[in-house]
């Protein structure tokens, strides 16, 4: 089968499409024929070597986390994710992938393959951040930083569905788009400082910058979470915030199970969440997809199809 791999850490140019044996499912696993796989910033972090303390130095390594495809044992359309916490010879950027059976779920019937793949990581991350980590309640003011990003745009939709009053920070070119997602207030982040903003009950950060300054904009009893903690500065800020107890900056790693995927599917079924796909690339153009990941101007997910 075809799979995207790399033999050394580096930029998009290290990626290559190789031919590898098709994997076999073991006990408690499923073999999935991949119909679409999303491209995530996590893929670029792994490829660059930033996480080599986790992924190691044994090559080749594969890329890709979330996917939509066919469970080969049942013929059922499924969506799910490869574990983000270990190095894989092949990831979801391949024709087939083997994953634990409790990390896939039936794909929402209303979604296309590419739409489903685009929503797995961003959707489950946003849902976990709002419902489980910060426990958003109806009527609360929720500030979302990076509201036009792949996680932020889903967070806006979900926060509205949970009954929150949503204030969204985004770039000027994206304000109308974020408004279309349901945000009650849209603010050009270039025109304000954290001190200019009204206090919020919940802050969802997707940028990983100025975390302590934004934390100070929490109301009494407010909660904050960041989903972008890949830099040393972000980790330092998160650690420093622990002295604030319940008002600390929280974070988590997303590896959705069947139940969480089913919960997300419920929001899709009610129409409260929909994916946004920017560009679809054939798998053999994965290098181009990774280059596009860092280029300005795209809105929504980049998705690969075999």
Description:
Helix 3 crosses helix 4 (150-161). The chain is of the alpha/beta class and 306 residues long. Strands 3, 5, 6, 7, 8, 15 and 16 form a seven-stranded mixed β-sheet that branches. A six-stranded parallel β-sheet has the order 11-10-9-12-13-14. The chain has a three-stranded antiparallel β-sheet with strand order 2-1-4, with no helix packed on it. It is built from nine helices and 16 strands. It is 28% helix and 28% strand.
Number of β-strand runs: 16
Multimeric organization:
single chain
How does CATH name the architecture of the largest domain?
Answer: Alpha-Beta Complex
Number of helices: 9
Count of spatially separate domains: 2
Helix/strand order, N-terminal first: EEEHHEEEEEHEHEHEEHEHEHEHE
Could you tell me the strand content as a percent range? 25-35%
Structural class: alpha/beta
Unreliably modeled segments = none
The chain-level mean pLDDT equals: 95
Fraction of helical residues? 25-40%
CATH superfamily of the largest domain: Medium-chain alcohol dehydrogenases, catalytic domain
Indicate the CATH topology of the largest domain: Quinone Oxidoreductase, Chain A, domain 1
What's the Cα radius of gyration? 19 Å
CATH class call of the largest domain = Alpha Beta
Largest β-sheet summary: 7 strands, mixed
What is the first-to-last residue Cα distance? Answer: 10 Å
Shape field: globular
């Amino acid at each position: 089968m075809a799979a995207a791999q790399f033999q050394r850490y580096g930029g998009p140019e290290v990626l290559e499409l190789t031919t590898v044996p098709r994997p076999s499912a073991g006990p408690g696993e499923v073999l999935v024929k991949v119909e679409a796989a999303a491209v995530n910033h996590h893929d670029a972090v792994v490829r660059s070597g930033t996480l080599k303390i986790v992924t190691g130095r044994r090559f080749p390594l594969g890329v890709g986390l979330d996917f939509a495809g066919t469970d080969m044992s049942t013929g059922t359309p499924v969506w799910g994710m490869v574990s983000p916490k270990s190095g894989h010879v092949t990831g979801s950027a391949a024709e087939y992938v083997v994953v634990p059976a409790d990390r896939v779920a039936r794909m929402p019937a209303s979604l296309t393959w590419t739409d489903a793949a685009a929503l797995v990581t961003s959707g489950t991350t946003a849902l976990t951040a709002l419902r489980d980590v910060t426990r958003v309640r109806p009527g609360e003011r929720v500030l979302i930083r990076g509201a036009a990003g792949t996680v932020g745009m889903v967070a806006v939709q979900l926060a509205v569905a949970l009954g929150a009053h949503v204030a969204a920070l985004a770039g000027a070119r994206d304000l109308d788009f974020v408004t279309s997602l349901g945000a009650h207030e849209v603010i050009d982040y270039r025109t304000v400082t954290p001190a200019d903003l009204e206090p919020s009950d919940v802050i969802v950060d997707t940028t990983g910058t100025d975390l302590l300054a934004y934390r100070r904009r929490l109301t009494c009893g407010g909660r904050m979470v960041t989903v972008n903690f890949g830099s040393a500065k972000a980790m330092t800020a998160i650690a420093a915030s622990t002295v604030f107890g319940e008002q600390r900056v929280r974070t988590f790693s997303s590896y959705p199970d069947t139940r969480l995927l089913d919960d997300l599917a419920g929001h899709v079924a009610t129409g409260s969440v929909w994916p946004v796909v920017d560009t679809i690339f054939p798998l053999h153009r994965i290098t181009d997809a990774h280059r596009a990941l860092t280029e300005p101007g795209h809105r929504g997910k980049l998705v690969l199809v075999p």
